[in-house]
Design brief:
mainly alpha, single chain, 260 residues, elongated
C-alpha cells in the first residue's frame, strides 16, 4: 500500500514538458536537418533529363550516397515536424478551446503532408536502390523520379497551402505567437497555392517552373519551413512575459473567459 501511495505521489510530482520550449526545439531540429539536406543536395549536382537513359543511370549511381543521406535527414526532419505540429496545436487549444477544430485541421493536414513526403522519399530511395547490386533500369528510375516529383510538387503544395492558411488564422485568432508569423503563414499559403497551379510544366531540371524544379523548393517547401523556424524562434526562449508554462497568453485566457 505504501508503495502504491509512493507511485501516486511521484506521478503527481511529474511536471508536463514545456510546450513552448519543445515547439522551439523541434523547429530548430527542422532547421538543422534542412541544412544537412540542402548541403548534401548541392554536392549531388543537377539531375539530367529523364529521357537521357545513360546519363540518368550514371547520375543515379554517382549520387546514391547523397540520396540516402537526404532521405535519412528528411525522415528525422519529418519526425520533428510531427512534434512541432502537435506543440502548435497544443498552444492554440490551450488559449482558445473554441478553435480546436481548426487546430485539428492544421495538424491533420500537416500529418498528411508528412506521409506524402515520406512516400516520395521512398520512391527516391527506390531509384537509388535500383543501381546497388542490380542491373539499372532507366525506365524504373524515370517512373520513380516522376512520382517523387509530383508528391514534392503540386500535391505537397496544396497540403501546405491548407496548413499555412489555417495556421495564419489560428495565429491571428489566438495570439499564441506574434502576429507577424501569421502574416508570413498567409503569404506562404498563397505561394504554395500558386505553385500548385503552375507546377505542372514538364520535368526538365533546367526549368524553374518544372515539376520538382527549383521553383518548387523556393516557392512551396522552403517558405513553409522558414515559417516553422520563425515560430520556433519566438517560443524557444520559454514562456514569454504574461505567458503560462502551458504556453497560454494571459490576455488570451482573459478573452476566452469573457466569451464564456
Amino acid at each position: 500500500m505504501m508503495y502504491v501511495n509512493y507511485l501516486i505521489m511521484e506521478n503527481d510530482c511529474m511536471r508536463s514538458p514545456d510546450v513552448r520550449r519543445w515547439t522551439g526545439i523541434s523547429a530548430f531540429a527542422v532547421a538543422i536537418f534542412l541544412a544537412i539536406e540542402s548541403i548534401t543536395k548541392l554536392t549531388a549536382g543537377q539531375r539530367p533529363e529523364l529521357d537521357d537513359s545513360e546519363a540518368l543511370i550514371a547520375h543515379t549511381q554517382a549520387t546514391t550516397s547523397q540520396t540516402i543521406i537526404v532521405i535519412l535527414a528528411d525522415t528525422f526532419l519529418m519526425a520533428f515536424l510531427i512534434v512541432f505540429l502537435a506543440c502548435f496545436r497544443q498552444l492554440v487549444t490551450k488559449a482558445r478551446q473554441d478553435l480546436e477544430w481548426i487546430a485539428d485541421l492544421t495538424f491533420g493536414a500537416g500529418l498528411v503532408f508528412i506521409a506524402v513526403t515520406l512516400v516520395g522519399d521512398a520512391m527516391d530511395g527506390g531509384a537509388a536502390l535500383d543501381v546497388i547490386g542490380l542491373t539499372p533500369d532507366a525506365s524504373a528510375i524515370r517512373a520513380l523520379t516522376e512520382g517523387h516529383s509530383i508528391m514534392f510538387g503540386s500535391t505537397g503544395a496544396v497540403l501546405l497551402a491548407l496548413v499555412s492558411a489555417t495556421s495564419a488564422y489560428l495565429t491571428f485568432a489566438s495570439a499564441v505567437v506574434p502576429r507577424w508569423t501569421g502574416i508570413l503563414a498567409a503569404a506562404t499559403a498563397i505561394s504554395n497555392l500558386a505553385w500548385a497551379i503552375v507546377g505542372f510544366n514538364g520535368t526538365s531540371p533546367n526549368s524553374f517552373f518544372s515539376v520538382g524544379g527549383f521553383g518548387n523548393a523556393l516557392l512551396a517547401i522552403f517558405p513553409w519551413l522558414v515559417w516553422v523556424v520563425c515560430v520556433g524562434v519566438t517560443t524557444v526562449r520559454g514562456a514569454r512575459e504574461g505567458t503560462s508554462r502551458s504556453g497560454v497568453p494571459t490576455g488570451a485566457v482573459g478573452a476566452v473567459s469573457e466569451v464564456r
